Amino acid sequence: MDDELSRAFAALADPIRRDIVARLTADDMTVTELAAHHAVSLQAVSKHLRVLEAAGLISRRRDGQQRWAHLEVDVFDLLTGWIDTYRRRAELRHQRLDDVLRRQP
Fold first, then answer.
1. Which pLDDT tens digits describe the chain residue by residue (105 residues)?
2. Where would I find the HTH arsR-type domain in this sequence (predicted)?
């Protein structure tokens, strides 16, 4: 799995990582703040953040002793673009089927 799209979808396959992404839509957060919402260790949350960072979904910056996670929205354009392409194709296929059924006597 070496392309950006595959890494992003794989990263989002985990429910904890999806929850982290959802929380980061509200504001940047530290590992400690994110871990407070999950019954897992700080190390586990840090590992999830590394996966999200490798997928390009987040970036992290250090501020003193704290490390803040920030959501990177550009990858979402890639994800939604891929999904929209196949959603439109499926809709067109269903529309053609509807047209055929409407022409039936």
1. 569 999 999 999 999 999 999 999 999 999 999 999 999 999 999 999 999 999 999 999 999 999 999 999 999 999 999 999 999 999 999 999 999 999 988
2. 1-90
Q: Tokens 């992404």 label which residue?
A: 21
**What's the predicted TM-score (pTM) here?**
0.82
For the chain, domains (ranges, CATH) are 1-103 (1.10.10.10)
- Among 14, 39, 11, 35, smallest CA distance to 23 is for 35
CB 14 within 8 A of CB 55: no
Cα separation, 21 vs 86, whole angstroms: 24
CB 1, CB 10: distance < 8 Å: yes
